[in-house]
Amino acid sequence: MTTTCTRLLVNKGNIHECTLQEVPRLQEQDLQDGEVLLDIDHFAFTANNITYATLGDRFGYWDFFPAEAPWGQVPVWGFADVSASRHPDIAVGTRVYGYLPMAGQLRVRPGNLTASSFTDMAEHRSHLALAYNQYQFTAADPAYRPELEALQMLLRPLLLTSFLLDDFLHEHHYFSAEQIILTSASSKTALGLAFMLNHQRSVRAGKPQRIVALTSAANAKFVSGLGYYDQTIAYDQLDEIDASKPSVLIDFAGNGTLLAEVHQRLEGNLKFSSLVGAAHWDQRKGEKNLPGAKPEVFFAPGYWAQRNKELGATELIGRFARLWAPLAQSVGSWMEIKTAQGVEAMMQAYTDTLNGLIKPETGMIMRTHSK
Ligand SMILES: NC(=O)c1ccc[n+]([C@@H]2O[C@H](COP(=O)([O-])OP(=O)(O)OC[C@H]3O[C@@H](n4cnc5c(N)ncnc54)[C@H](OP(=O)(O)O)[C@@H]3O)[C@@H](O)[C@H]2O)c1
């Protein structure tokens, strides 16, 4: 066993600058009573993680795993094993799924222990959303399959947002729209939403909406080939949008120019405009006084908490689980999982994702060590 492990640090003021830092490998004697050491096995990395970095200051994403200024650690979703424990009820060898740094280890202070999960009660995380502080025991998760770990960490956090958006639109009767337009339509979160809208319209009453993809010219063929959307339009062909139909816009791109163009094209026919993502993270800017509905930020953890209160956790999770199975099956049929193994490969994959060089059909998994 080596005496050090490596973590990836990103400059919070310039996320293009990143570095690898070696830190001493912690052992049981470094823990305090009640603490547990997690050895991080592997984790997923998508545009969503870049958004955590882009919006880190605004939404507190840098606060989960602090580092010395100007550096920050980008949070990721992945799996880890308990390698040392000074908690009486958590055994060495326990495997968990949750929010992790791009690093070899994480020290946590488990609390709120149940048969299925614990919460990291570390002081510096106490102001952050519960959804991000909870760690699930894989042995107690009925949906867990070891062979599906890659799909789980790549898709579950994103598709929860897709699911909540689908629920939100349904709850609002789709704002009486006849078409739903998604930007960055090739992103996993957008594809998840398109799949769910498509899947649900066969079971929900009422007039089905047309689902429209807006995407890069290079990704248009892939997007239309999936069959999740009724129409696929490249960003340089926005005049193909049918502006005569009452519409909803769900924006995963966060590109100010694109947002303005779609608003200007649809004008009063844009009944609702939701800001969900910032996949085109380098082209964000404030857009004011756009025609049509005023863009509203959609923050998934906030809507989850609201629906959890209204429906109860069991019903809400049950609804998600019913959609997750067919969706994971569909996505599993086309997604190519790639693993960046070792810290140099991890840094390269980080930079490639930042620069939009990862193909939409690729699911990127990272591992700091060679297995
Ligand atoms: N609000 C929330 O709670 C919430 C939750 C989940 C996800 N999201 C957001 O949804 C967005 C999509 O996330 P994801 O993880 O699903 O993405 P992903 O699967 O990694 O999607 C990548 C897609 O984003 C676009 N893209 C990525 N990098 C780009 C770049 N540098 N320049 C231009 N386009 C780029 C491309 O789509 P096109 O060619 O189709 O544009 C690309 O296919 C993210 O901004 C994420 O934060 C928000």
Can you tag this structure with a few keywords?
globular; 2 domains; 371 residues; single chain; 10 helices; binds NADP nicotinamide-adenine-dinucleotide phosphate; Quinone Oxidoreductase, Chain A, domain 1; alpha/beta; six-stranded parallel sheet; 32% helix; Rossmann fold; nine-stranded mixed sheet
Task: Describe, in plain words, how this protein is organized in 3D.
The protein has about 375 residues and is α/β, with parallel strands linked by helices. It folds into two domains: about 170 residues, Medium-chain alcohol dehydrogenases, catalytic domain (Quinone Oxidoreductase, Chain A, domain 1, Alpha-Beta Complex), CATH 3.90.180; about 150 residues, NAD(P)-binding Rossmann-like Domain (Rossmann fold, 3-Layer(aba) Sandwich). The two termini are about 15 Å apart. The chain contains ten helices and 18 strands. Strands 3, 5, 6, 7, 8, 9, 10, 17 and 18 form a nine-stranded mixed beta sheet that branches. It has a six-stranded parallel beta sheet with strand order 13-12-11-14-15-16, sandwiched between helices. The protein has a three-stranded antiparallel beta sheet with strand order 2-1-4. The protein is globular and about 70 Å long. The longest helix has 23 residues.
Short note summarizing the structure:
Helices cover 32% and strands 26% of the residues. With 371 residues, the protein is α/β, with parallel strands linked by helices.
Major beta sheet summary: 9 strands, mixed
- The number of distinct helices, counting runs of at least 4 residues, comes to 10
What is the global morphology? globular
**Structural domains: how many:** 2
Helix proportion of residues, in percent? 25-40%
What is the CATH topology of the largest domain?
Quinone Oxidoreductase, Chain A, domain 1
Class of secondary structure makeup: alpha/beta
Strand content: 25-35%
List all distinct small molecules, including ions and cofactors, that are bound in this structure.
Answer: NADP nicotinamide-adenine-dinucleotide phosphate
Instruction: Please give the oligomerization state of what you see.
Output: single chain
SSE string, helix = H, strand = E?
EEEHHEEEEEEHEHEHEHEEHEEHHEHE
CATH architecture of the largest domain: Alpha-Beta Complex
**Uncertain parts:** none
- Separation, N- and C-terminal Cα atoms: 13 Å
CATH top-level class of the largest domain: Alpha Beta
Estimated radius of gyration = 21 Å
Number of strands: 18
- Write out the CATH superfamily name of the largest domain: Medium-chain alcohol dehydrogenases, catalytic domain
User: pLDDT average, as an integer?
Assistant: 93
